[in-house]
Amino acid sequence: MTLHITGDAEADELLTSDSLALLIGMLLDQQVPMETAFAGPKKIRERTGGLDATAIAGADPDEFAAMFKVPPSVHRFPGSMAGRVQALCAEIRDRWGGDAAALWTDGDPDGPEVLRRLEALPGFGAQKAKIFLALLGKQYGYQGDGWREASGPYGEEGSYRSVADIVSPDSLAKVREHKKAMKAAAKA
């Protein structure tokens, strides 16, 4: 299994092989294109020398935020998002022993439990948690009981609602079409 989200093979491989990278990418996925958000972990790794929850959580906040601002910036809002990444990493360090995958592996949790764990993370609301749970189930190999139901419409098979459904340029186009239609409906 290899994720195909960013259009950058190296960034996609990092997302595939590093659960913290995937979690950070999901956190960054707001107010920027999906490809930009999910390429963020690669930029962080290149600029800090690694992706380690303990190291990121313990980094000097001003230096970490400054690294986010280096062109091309990690995010459109580098200061606030750098703080959110550090808060997320502190939670992973303190609650999950530095292992992001423990969120969905520790104790063999079912889908509703993983959803609760995700919703408890800094920067993850209900919708983001459901999308991430669907991404885990559809593309990352997580098969806990009830994951589709817990992830709501994002878990539906054959849907093109979110990053959980992107496996090719064609599926990316379908997700973009869905999001455009949802925005138009909200404005109407």
What amount of the residues lies in strands? under 5%
What is the CATH-assigned architecture? Orthogonal Bundle
* Alpha carbon gyration radius: 16 Å
The biggest beta sheet, please? none
Helix fraction by DSSP (H/I, runs of at least 4): 55-70%
The H-and-E topology, N to C, reads as HHHHHHHHHHH
How many structural domains are formed by the residues?
1
Give the full name of the CATH homologous superfamily.
Hypothetical protein, domain 2
Q: What name does CATH use for the topology?
A: Endonuclease III, domain 1
What is the CATH C level class, in words?
A: Mainly Alpha
Which parts are unreliable, with pLDDT below 50 for 5 consecutive residues or more? Answer: none
Spell out the key features of this protein.
Endonuclease III, domain 1, mainly alpha, 188 residues, 63% helix
Describe the structure concisely for a colleague.
The protein is mostly helical and 188 residues long. The protein is globular.
List the helices and strands and how they pair.
Layout: H1 9-17, H2 19-28, H3 34-48, H4 53-58, H5 61-69, H6 78-96, H7 102-105, H8 111-119, H9 126-139, H10 147-150, H11 169-187
Can you give a write-up of this model?
This protein is mainly α and 188 residues long. The chain has one domain: Endonuclease III, domain 1 (Orthogonal Bundle), CATH 1.10.340. Helix content is 63%, strand content 0%. It is built from 11 helices and no strands. The longest helix is centred in the middle third of the chain and has 19 residues. 38% of the residues are buried. The model has no long low-confidence stretch (mean pLDDT 95).
